[in-house]
Design brief:
This protein has helices at about 65-70, 160-165, 185-195, and strands spanning about 10-20, 20-25, 40, 45-50, 55-60, 80-85, 105-115, 115-120, 135-140, 140-150, 155-160, 175-180. It is mainly beta and about 200 residues long. The mean pLDDT is about 90. Its EC number is 2.5.1.9.
Length: about 200
């Protein structure tokens, strides 16, 4: 489980395709990685296969992951958001994030508002029922609050530290993003429709 509080960004050092998926090597300053550890890479929960402490780690993207994410377009030099799984005794600062990408969407608009930014993203039809104003949404692994929404888009307010410490500073209209809706909303829907 993750919290959506991005710890760092990493640069994609290498991408290698094979018949079963893609292997990706990513730079990181994390010293305490272990084989088999879960790590969120721009919102997708992946497993550390190999690593050099404080230097890099590699993950394998199965065909399902490649199909469900924008990682089919991932290339050397790209920057990704990184978060290690939350320890049982850790602080819970964001919201419950599973690292299960529900859909890809795209940046519709980026507007500077004083020292902050407003980002507007497309909203896939099949996720619309899970978003409410002031509810939680994960965008590229970042825990955010829905500021506004309509039938086809939603907006979030981004503070300077989030803008500077994540890949949002690199995003422009038309760029893809990963979305994960609040899992609590999914459970509520299931309970209501099954009763």
């Amino acid at each position: 489980m993750f919290t959506g509080i991005v710890e760092a960004t990493g640069e994609v050092l290498a991408v290698e395709d094979d018949a079963g998926g893609r292997r990706v090597r990513i730079s990181t300053g994390f010293e305490d990685l272990t084989h088999g550890q879960s790590i969120s890479v721009s919102g997708a929960c992946l497993t550390v296969e190999e690593f050099e402490p404080g230097e890099w780690f590699s993950v394998f993207l199965a065909a399902e992951t490649v199909d469900r994410t924008f990682f089919d377009e991932l290339a050397e030099g790209d920057i990704v958001n990184l978060e290690r799984a939350m320890p049982a005794d850790g602080r819970f600062d964001g919201h419950v994030v599973q690292g299960h990408v529900d859909a890809t969407a795209e940046v519709v608009a980026v507007e500077s508002v004083g020292e902050d930014w407003t980002f507007t993203f497309s909203l896939p039809d099949d996720l619309s029922q899970y978003l409410v104003e002031k509810g939680s949404i994960t965008v590229d692994g970042i825990s955010l609050t829905v500021a506004d929404r309509d039938e086809s888009t939603f907006s979030v307010a981004i503070i300077p530290s989030t803008y500077d410490l994540t890949t949002l500073s690199e995003k422009a209209p038309g760029d893809p993003v990963h979305l994960e809706v609040d899992v609590v909303a999914k459970y509520v829907e299931r309970m209501v429709t099954d009763s």
